[in-house]
Amino acid sequence: MSDIVSTEKRSQMMAGIKGKDTQPEILIRHALHRQGFRFRLHAKDLPGKPDLVFRKYNAVLFIHGCFWHQHDCSLFKWPSSNVEFWQTKLGKNKTTDQNNIKKLLDSGWRVGVIWECAMRGKGRHKVDTILDRCSKWIVSDRKKFEIRAQL
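Below the sequence we write its predicted structure tokens.
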């Protein structure tokens, strides 16, 4: 199936998609900051450049988009055009994510992931619920944490 927009237009559209400072990320970080948490943004010295780094708690938090990180939820749909490219691209993203999380855990970091579907769509949680669970995890000693859409 061919694309409904030109190659140039599609390229322009894809270039406009942000990799950091997304709306879900800004919402979470502002709310956690209001709760008194202090963090570093997009630490280049850590695998995967986590969205939020809580050094005091030895914890990092990723806020992942379901499409770009190939999440198994209702928000992820395979594109119908240029299928081979997308399978390769998104497969690499998923493998890279897994490797980065393993490197972080192996070096003593605790790793949390909040998925886009937890904040959007049918199975979304209330923002207060996400923040409560997230803040409790940050101060806990649990190694891994994940919030995804409700089933």
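DSSP finds four helices and five strands in the chain.
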